[in-house]
Amino acid sequence: MSFDSRAFRTALGAFPTGVAVVTASGPDSHMGITVNSFTSVSLDPPLVLWCIDRRSRRFPAFAGAAGFTISILGAGQKEVSARLAGVGEHSLDGIALAATESGPPALADALAVFECARENVWDAGDHAVLIGRVLRFSRRDGGGAPLVYFQGRYGALAQS
Fold this sequence. Notes:
Blueprint: H1 5-12, E1 17-18, E2 20-25, E3 30-35, E4 39-42, E5 47-53, H2 59-64, E6 67-72, H3 78-85, E7 97-98, E8 106-107, E9 112-124, E10 127-139, E11 147-150, E12 153-156
Antiparallel strand pairs: 1-11, 2-3, 2-6, 4-5, 5-10, 6-9, 7-8, 9-10, 11-12
């Protein structure tokens, strides 16, 4: 029996995920990448993870970075997410940013921000799992609807 990778990807799309942008300092400037693989790992110590394709041109910079910043996107940030999800696009030029203490900027108006020091990088098939130790975090007052990704499309959760 052969494994149908496309059908597998479609089945994975049945799980709605939040959307985040991870930023890191590159050799010449800051760079960003859209991810939907963000999750918490541990409260003590405070650890989070996200995954990146090892074939990505951005992989060496992110895997080798001393730290990174994760911005959880709100429903109004679809265009930023789509831009940084594209092949080859990684520049933060023209994107509204907020300074952080650790260096890599956060996205302005993010629902939450996590400044992390790289803890571990593990190979996992065609991806790598990056574990970050959370040094600082913030949450936007008033919350807001998160940007979600479901069955290959962006959406938002209804607020109760």
